[in-house]
Inverse folding.
């Protein structure tokens, strides 16, 4: 079982990345601010795509009561998110500060498409902090409990 990030989340990451790729080619302060966001975001998004998002692909099956013991393979990922949550949130803090710089540079250059992009990325970070990271952690705990119950029933 090789869980991948749910398609809508993966697509959203790709869309944000494509727009950021356009922003980094801008000149001056706007481009510098975008390049800082890109540097901070690259490794962070890789962690999300590796650890935080793939377990979420199990949510539809689990919501329908479909549990399989092989779902336990995601526990390493969810345990990583739980153990490194403060690091992920600290990375968000740095990314949000860089996005504020990007917003200021975009406003100064009257490039409001970049203001809108930065606001979209800020909202995405909030979604991760308030919904996706907690969901990944709770999902791992749920799978662990279901696995333990299955093993108790079938020693």
């Amino acid at each position: 079982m090789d869980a991948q990030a749910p398609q809508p989340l993966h697509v959203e990451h790709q869309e944000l990345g494509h727009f950021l790729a356009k922003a980094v080619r801008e000149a001056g302060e706007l481009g510098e601010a975008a390049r800082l966001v890109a540097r901070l975001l690259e490794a962070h998004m890789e962690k999300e795509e590796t650890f935080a998002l793939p377990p979420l692909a199990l949510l539809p099956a689990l919501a329908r009561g479909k549990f399989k013991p092989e779902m336990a393979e995601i526990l390493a990922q969810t345990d990583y998110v739980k153990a490194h949550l403060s690091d992920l949130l600290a990375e968000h803090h740095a990314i949000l500060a860089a996005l504020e710089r990007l917003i200021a540079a975009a406003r100064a250059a009257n490039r409001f498409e970049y203001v809108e992009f930065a606001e979209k990325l800020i909202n995405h970070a909030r979604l991760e902090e308030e919904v996706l990271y907690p969901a990944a952690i709770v999902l791992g705990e749920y799978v662990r409990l279901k696995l333990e119950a299955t093993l108790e029933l079938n020693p």
